[in-house]
Design goal:
Elements: E1 2-6, H1 10-22, E2 26-30, H2 33-40, E3 47-51, H3 59-68, E4 75-79, H4 84-92, E5 97-100, H5 105-121, E6 126-129, E7 132-135, E8 140-143, E9 146-149, H6 152-163, E10 169-170, H7 171-177, H8 185-201, E11 206-211, E12 214-219
Parallel strand pairs: 1-2, 1-3, 3-4, 4-5
Antiparallel strand pairs: 6-7, 7-8, 8-9, 10-12, 11-12
Helix pairs in contact: 2-3, 6-8
Amino acid sequence: MKILYAEDELGLSMAVAEVLKMEGFEVTSVMDGLSADEILQKEHFDMVVLDIMMPGMEGTQVAENMRKRSDYTPVLLLTAKAETEDRIDGLNKGADDYLAKPFAMGELVARVKAMIRRNRDYQQTVLNLANVTLDLESNELSARSGSLILSVKEAKLLALFLEKESVSYSVEDIAGQVFQGEVSPEEITLYMAYLNNKLIQIHGNLQLVMKDDRICMEQKEESD
């Protein structure tokens, strides 16, 4: 499970990252809001932990930008602010929960695990983007000209991009999340071609493309 942790206090950042790693999480740490916002546009995470007061961009703005990009990864805000209004502002901008500083490491770990668990329990079973719909229970892909059934791997690959339409993924990301690492870059390229061909068959106006060694989803003009 991958966590992005943004905190500008170096000592606290190192301590929290170490605790989360000991719990089995893969942690990416950044020291400012701008770096967090940038990496979230390129990589997938299972959880995001943000300090509110950071240089460059506050954690609340990072959370708000995520939601504007249709990125609904769980967000936990860490705040030293005591005012109720500040916490409400963070929740209104897209955060799922907050934890007041100073906090016990055990409580932080418990919050993170609970939020990831809740997110998995309430994941959508039907995903929609443009004129394309994917039913995750039946793996049925449908668009303007009909429907067809995808393989399990094809459905998982497409779901990555339908869930977070503005996020691009490296080949390594996809290998780990969809294929559990047991796939070559060439095989991933083949899966992309299979999916694009099936989208064409049903006149879906989406396509998977490779840009700068990363894979992303693009929307095509809908033809008559």
